[in-house]
Design goal:
By secondary structure, the chain is an all-alpha fold. The protein has three domains: about 50 residues, no CATH class; about 425 residues, MFS general substrate transporter like domains (Growth Hormone, Chain: A, Up-down Bundle); about 45 residues, no CATH class. Helix 3 runs parallel beside helix 8, helix 5 runs parallel beside helix 7 and helix 6 runs antiparallel to helix 7. About 50% of the residues are buried. Pfam families: MFS_1 (PF07690). It is found in: Membrane. It is a multi-pass membrane protein.
Length: about 550
């Protein structure tokens, strides 16, 4: 009996990720009727596995999970590592800072490698490097060696994030990028949640210890790296690793081939006002996230068990996971209704919500570890996670993909990580220094010392005050800086579209959306003009879209 042919011409750049533009004949009615649900499911799974976009983005999301597991693992075992190394909170914070700072300053390296080489290979190298160093850290015997290991770990992490984000931007079109980045944020947050749960609970097992959790995470990281090497694909490279020059030229890819060319492209990125504005807000906006590495320890100081503390931290991570997906979805909707302001407004609401919730969390909730208190923390942390995690998937990541040519996306994501992370990495040390030198924290990063209950509660109050300062103040400044995007983003977005049109040698038509949009100011006349690429009109209506069309015959 003749079997039904399963369509294999999957277009990885298709907006919906399904069958490409070539028509595929449906199965004959009689044959379709004979298919069992299991056969239908098998056909769908086959289509998904052979779809390069689905396969690649799936592996990218797995790498994102392991990146966040690796990142969250150390803060979740601060108490156990502090006991092993006899370290104070400030010393433990420097472990996290070493990783974050080196990751930040080496992110341009990851961007440049992703700019010139197959990005799936760059991601593989990052996974292998951080996996090996994570295993090495589990065998260290002093805090000094720990600093060195965690610094090298940051190099591995810096190779993964820029290439992952630029691949997602390449595989999805503008109207779908918010959801795509939201899914990437969700999987990353799930990784953070798993890291918090896994590290805190396995470290308490005497036969396993915190060293065992680091070894198993290292093994999983190396495995994900190898899977990415074998099965993921960069759409700008062939299966044997050669750059697709023809396709690259068609999409505006002109990789720099000299040091001068590289610096010219770097200068073009850092001179974009929207990029600078996002970096400025990111420097202060990332402080709270770096400061919250002490949150598991804070809950333990309140008297909560290891299981309760890790469960609450996992609840917060789960909230940020779902919040990232919701934020990306809301950003896409808002950008269609208000092209120049929608994403920014969604982001500002998210940032603002963190301010009152931080006050509730660190000042209004009870200072004890009773079961009723755990329930209150559960609801506040879940709500906080759902609301404060919209900025990156709803606004920052999609906007970065819109203000530079496609071939520069790895670099812009890398420099975002570099400029933001280098300064924001000081969040954890600032929290520990404020707690110790301003708010009266004394002793090591342990619980259960002499006069345990009162001592631990005093430590918790000191840490709560430091955490409050390092969340409310940065988020307030971040909210203010985001307002500047309302001025810079519309111009930079239009300029990027015009530059892309100029590179492709096409005509540009500026036309008002049919029927207008809610974002178009009253009184703006409808426009319809064809121009050779030039500066955008300052008086053009905000709701206009820029459409790239093929030049007329004979032009």
């Amino acid at each position: 009996m003749e079997q039904e042919a399963v369509p294999t011409d999957i277009d990885p750049l298709c907006p919906e990720g399904d069958v490409g533009s070539a028509p595929v004949s449906p199965p004959a009615p009689a044959l379709a009727a004979r298919q069992t649900p299991r056969q239908t499911l098998a056909n769908k799974l086959f289509i998904w596995v052979t779809n390069e976009r689905v396969r690649t983005t799936f592996l990218i999301n797995l790498a994102s999970i392991m990146e966040r597991v690796d990142e969250q693992l150390l803060p979740s075992v601060y108490r156990f590592v502090g006991r092993t190394f006899h370290a104070r909170p400030t010393q433990l914070s420097y472990l996290t800072t070493c990783r974050a700072f080196v990751q930040a300053i080496s992110s341009p390296l990851g961007g440049l490698l992703g700019h010139h080489y197959d990005r799936t290979r760059v991601i593989t190298a990052g996974c292998l490097l951080w996996g090996c160093v994570t295993a090495l850290f589990s065998q260290t015997t002093s805090i000094t060696l720990g600093y060195m290991c965690w610094a090298v770990n940051g190099i591995g992490l810096s190779l993964v994030i820029p290439s992952s984000q630029s691949l997602v931007a390449d595989y999805y079109r503008e109207g779908d990028r918010g959801k795509a980045f939201g899914l990437l944020y969700l999987t990353g947050a799930v990784g953070g949640m798993l890291g918090a749960l896994y590290g805190t609970n396995t470290a308490a097992i005497a036969a396993f210890g915190w060293q065992g959790s680091f070894l198993t995470v290292a093994l999983a990281s190396v495995s994900i790296g190898l899977l990415t090497h074998w099965f993921a694909r960069d759409p700008h490279f062939s299966a044997d690793g050669k750059r697709l020059h023809k396709d690259g030229e068609a999409s505006g890819l002109h990789p720099a081939t000299s040091v001068h060319g590289v610096f010219r492209e770097i200068r073009s990125i850092v001179c974009i006002p929207t990029f600078c504005m996002i970096i400025v807000q990111g420097v202060v906006g990332s402080f709270p996230w770096n400061a919250l590495v002490f949150f598991t320890f804070y809950l333990q100081l309140l008297g909560m068990s290891d299981i309760a503390a890790s469960a609450l931290m996992a609840t917060f991570m789960a909230g940020t996971a779902m919040g990232g997906l919701i934020g990306g979805w809301l950003g896409d909707i808002a950008s269609r209704q208000y092209p120049n302001h929608g994403r920014i407004l969604v982001c500002q609401f998210s940032v603002f919500s963190g301010i009152p919730l931080s006050i509730v969390l660190f000042k209004l909730l009870p200072f004890d570890g009773s079961s009723s208190t755990v329930a209150l923390y559960f609801f506040v942390l879940l709500l906080m996670g759902l609301l404060i995690s919209w900025a990156a998937p709803a606004c920052n990541s999609p906007i970065f993909a819109e203000i530079v040519p496609p071939h520069m996306r790895s670099m812009i994501y890398a420099f975002d990580r570099s400029f933001e992370g280098a300064i924001a990495s000081m969040g954890a040390p600032i929290v520990s220094n404020l707690a110790e030198k301003v708010f009266g924290y004394t002793g090591t990063a342990e619980t259960g010392e002499a006069n345990a209950v009162q001592t631990d509660l005093d430590k918790a109050r000191s840490l709560a005050n430091a955490l409050l300062v390092c969340t409310v103040v940065p988020w307030s400044l971040c909210l203010l800086f985001y307002s500047g995007l309302h001025l810079t983003y519309p111009r930079d977005r239009r300029a990027a579209l015009l530059a892309a049109a100029s590179a492709a040698d096409v005509h540009i038509q500026l036309a008002a959306n049919s029927g207008g949009t809610a974002d178009t100011e009253a009184g703006d006349p409808p426009l319809s003009l064809s121009v050779i690429p030039a500066l955008p009109r300052e008086d053009a209506a905000e709701g206009e879209t820029v459409k790239l069309i093929a030049p007329p015959l004979g032009a």
